[in-house]
Amino acid sequence: MARGTKRWLAAMGLASLLTLGATVPAQAAGGGNNDFGCRPSAAHPNPVVLLHGTFATYYEDLNFLQADLAARGYCTFSLTYGAYPQFPFVGGLKPVAESSLEIKAFVEKVRAATGAAKVDVVGHSEGGLQSLYLAKMQGIQSELGQVVAIAPPTHGANASGLLTLAYTLLGKSTWDTIVKTIGLPIFADELDGGAAVVALNTGPVAQPGIGYTIITSRYDELVTPTETSFVREPGVKNQYVQDFCPFDPVGHIGEAYDLNVWHLVRNALDPAHAAPIKVCAVGSPG
């Protein structure tokens, strides 16, 4: 099944749940996405920047989560990063290091516009990797509050063995050349041994003064093995969705739309008011 179709089905499943009663609060004034006139409240003092995954955009991946956070009074912002000028409809394609510069500039723009001391970052898939990379590599640790990474390929993913097979059949150098030639260098970065993965994992990933939460599903079929998402360092919260909702079958794309994941994200953004999940939703597999 195509990635876009899976994402559409996951969104439709979410819409059905909302229709059945898992409603989102009414939108707070000034809480729309990319409203640079939004001023953070005392309850939610940090603006939230949301980062999409590979082959996605700011308006198609974490857009429903963004709307949920905005409706709860957060100032939310997002961008399509890593897109080529000649094809601006899909992002997350450029090398992590290159896209990270775009994200850094955007974070600093958000902080300056809102007057906030710190910005929180939430990312899904490549966006999760980008959030961790940004916090370590771009020298803005003092500007970041919480980093929440949903299914990031922190230590390199193998997509249920398919990318490892590509390495085995072609060799790393040949694979890297191919993906760079066709304009998809991100596929070299996200594997074990990729430049971004190596840079991120050289020394501690977690940086002082930043709160970290990693969320993934035991049934994620793309960022595998699923343990590769986690950062096993002091102070980092590593969470499987199934630790809270054992029967949620949610897969990689579905994690962006999963109401249980959203709840864990909200807890991570506001740990002082973290609450248990009282009723578990059933997310989209795949």
TrEMBL record:
Question: Carries keyword Transport?
Answer: no
Q: Which UniProt keywords apply?
A: Signal
InterPro entries for the chain: AB_hydrolase_fold (IPR029058), Lipase_EstA/Esterase_EstB (IPR002918)
Give GO MF terms, alphabetically. lipase activity
Statement: the UniProt record of this protein carries the keyword Transmembrane: no
Please indicate which superkingdom the organism of origin belongs to.
Answer: Bacteria
**Which residues does UniProt assign to the signal peptide?**
1-28
Q: Which Gene3D superfamilies match?
A: alpha/beta hydrolase
Q: Name one GO biological process term.
A: lipid catabolic process
Name used for this protein in its record = Lipase (Class 2)
Q: Which organism is it from?
A: Amycolatopsis pretoriensis
